[in-house]
Amino acid sequence: MNELIKNTEEKMQKTISALERDYKAVRAGRANVAVLDRITVDYYGAPTPIQQMAAVSVPEARTLMIQPWDASTLRDIEKAILTSDIGINPQNDGRVIRLMFPPLTEERRRDIVKEIKKTAEESKVAIRNLRRDALEKLKGLKKSNSITEDDEANGEKKIQNLTDKFCKEVDSMSSDKEKEIMEI
């Protein structure tokens, strides 16, 4: 039973980690290297993250600069950025690529906040699904007489406490990200 609770907690923590990655990639009107995390470039037939092919820096608050180590990959990186979903047109000067982040309009901020809330709700649903699966396994253990009723009740309580803890963490992360977006 302890193994079941431990596995459930690990899976819930992975959900939180995925949410953190998603929130880091949210374009908030400021230059953020994390927006490039999901973009890969076809480099000699292998999908390669931009950070492994170039030096990425933030010279100004709204500018991201990508300087490839191999100048011949400049066009490939530019093409990968154009086909991605970040919504920024790269500016290629032949040596480096610059991404200029425009300031966010009030309407765009509200849209981003809606997306943040939607992502948070999806994470909470995933956590609740993990709780449901764990409770079903507990009932199965009880049916097979592997655990007692008291063990089952204790396990249910522990799983519910984990669920509450991780849902609160999702809410906290969501509200922090919303504040960040609305304050910019």
Strand content: 15-25%
Task: Please outline the major beta sheet.
Answer: 4 strands, antiparallel
Unreliable residue stretches: none
Write down the secondary-structure element order.
HEEEEHEEHH
What's the mean pLDDT score? Answer: 89
| Count of individual beta strands | 6
Q: Briefly note the structural class of the backbone.
A: alpha+beta
Compute the number of helices.
4
Strand order of the largest sheet: 3-4-6-5
Radius of gyration from the CA trace?
22 Å
List the helices and strands and how they pair.
Layout: H1 2-24, E1 40-43, E2 46-49, E3 54-60, E4 63-68, H2 74-83, E5 90-92, E6 97-100, H3 106-143, H4 149-183
Antiparallel strand pairs: 1-2, 3-4, 4-6, 5-6
Helix pairs in contact: 1-3, 1-4, 3-4
Describe this structure as you would to a colleague:
There is one protein chain. Helix content is 58%, strand content 15%. By secondary structure, the chain is α+β, with helices and mostly antiparallel strands. A hairpin with a 2-residue loop joins strand 1 and strand 2. The chain contains four helices and six strands. The model has no long low-confidence stretch (mean pLDDT 89). The strands form two sheets. It has a four-stranded antiparallel β-sheet with strand order 3-4-6-5, covered by helices on one side. Strands 1-2 form a two-stranded antiparallel sheet. The N and C termini lie far apart (47 Å).
